[in-house]
Amino acid sequence: MPEFLRLLAAVQQSHLENLCEANKQHVRCQKCLEFGHWTYECTGKRKYLHRPSRTAELKKALKEKENRLLLQQRESGRERERETST
Length: 86
Ligand SMILES: [Zn+2]
Description:
Elements: H1 3-24, H2 54-85
The structure holds zinc ion (ZN).
Protein name: Zinc finger CCHC-type containing 10
InterPro entries: ZCCHC10 (IPR039715), Znf_CCHC_sf (IPR036875)
GO molecular function, one term: zinc ion binding
């Protein structure tokens, strides 16, 4: 293989490696949930995703219901305002 071709191959190789390294910055490990490495490269400990508990879900649902009611009250209040002003 001519020298320049070997050089070109080496440059392309390192360029590809650089690209891979750059891409890795956006990679998220599914094991420890850290950025910058792949799951199979992980040296960290497995983290567990905190899923909202049933009570938390219920609270959230209640809060949404509350918000919707408040919004409705505000809407009907506006309606009443309009009625009294005319
Ligand atoms: Zn990891």
